[in-house]
Design goal:
Blueprint (H helix, E strand, L loop, with lengths): L2 E5 L4 H17 L4 E5 L4 H10 L11 E5 L4 H11 L3 E4 L11 E5 L10 E4 L15 E5 L11 H14 L3 E5 L6 H8 L5 E3 L8 H8 L2 E5 L3 H9 L3 E5 L8 H11 L4 E2 L17 H11 L4
Parallel strand pairs: 1-2, 1-3, 3-4, 4-5, 5-6, 7-8, 7-10, 8-9, 10-11, 11-12
């Protein structure tokens, strides 16, 4: 069976990106299988890269995918040993020309090159399903090096949302959500709260798939893209930004494209349904297939 090999550094976000692409490839080529391996130790990867020899338990795959700086040397070593194309997700720390294909988010301002595809955010594994009428998700992030946190402003926005648009609201937090914010959210009426630490790995994608609407704090960029991938109508709660960096530029671009509704611009009615499908993993998988690698 033809294999797609995913080099995974064990970080959930990186694995989510790589499997998002790999699973989209399987949907287009049902005969494919997916295998996962950890990166080689650095010295072992350097040896394999220099000498082109490495003993592997796996059969030679058709394609190798990886995300995260810790996978880069292993990707290049496997490319040299196996003579197979390698795909890196996110902007690599090594020269772009070393990789067969680089999938880089638009907010990282990738150059226009034959081996570069600009993506709208990081790829993910989220898909859409039949929507449940009146269902909505609220996704709450927290402070980071890029943004501050105005707890009272956020709580006021969420209360206004529930009052003006009553329905079946389910809220989840993130690892960055301050404990005081989580406590006040759990005491709020009109919403079911599921703290991030108490949900199973597949819980959020499953909930997003059937939700009609989703409101996200705009610092949670990965969750914004997951909500869009799930086919939700998406609104964003504002947070205080420390600087106008690449993440804020990416969010503002989505607003300009009509893919997000800012809370300040919200009319109070149901959010408008997406005008077009948002499936970056599928789009990129199609471009990979078009290159004749599978």
């Amino acid at each position: 069976m033809v294999q797609v090999l995913v080099v995974s550094d064990g970080k959930a976000g990186h694995r989510n990106q790589s499997l998002g692409l790999a699973e989209a490839l399987v949907r287009l080529r049902p005969g494919l299988s997916i295998e996962q391996v950890a990166p080689m130790p650095r010295l072992q990867a350097l040896f394999a890269l220099i000498f082109g020899r490495y003993a592997l338990a796996q059969d030679k795959p058709a394609l190798v995918i990886g995300a995260g700086h810790g996978t880069h040397l292993t990707l290049l070593a496997l490319k040299r040993c196996w003579r197979v194309p390698v795909i890196v997700l996110m902007k690599p720390s090594l020269p772009l020309a070393l990789f067969d294909l680089c999938l880089i988010p638009e907010h990282d301002q990738p150059p226009e090159r034959g081996n570069v595809i600009a993506t709208k955010g990081a790829l993910n594994r989220v898909g859409s399903a039949a929507k449940v009428a009146g269902s909505g998700m609220i996704l709450v992030g927290g402070p980071s090096k890029s943004n501050g946190w105005d707890e009272e402003r956020l709580l006021g926005q969420i209360r206004a949302l529930i009052e003006r648009s009553p329905g079946s609201w389910v809220l989840t937090t993130s690892r960055r959500t301050p404990a005081s914010t989580q406590e006040k959210l759990q005491a709020m009426d009109g919403v079911e709260v599921y703290p991030a630490g108490q949900t199973a790995p597949g819980w959020l994608p499953e909930k997003l798939a059937t939700a009609e609407q989703c409101w996200v704090t705009e610092d949670s960029v990965s969750m914004i893209y997951e909500a869009l991938s799930a086919g939700c109508a998406v609104g964003v709660f504002g947070v205080p930004w420390k600087r106008e960096g690449r993440l804020l530029r990416g969010v503002n671009r989505l607003k300009e494209q009509g893919l997000l509704t800012a809370f300040e611009q919200w009319s109070g009615n149901s959010l408008p349904a997406p005008k077009q499908a948002f499936n970056e993993a599928g789009r990129c998988a199609g471009k990979v297939i078009a290159r004749g690698w599978l």
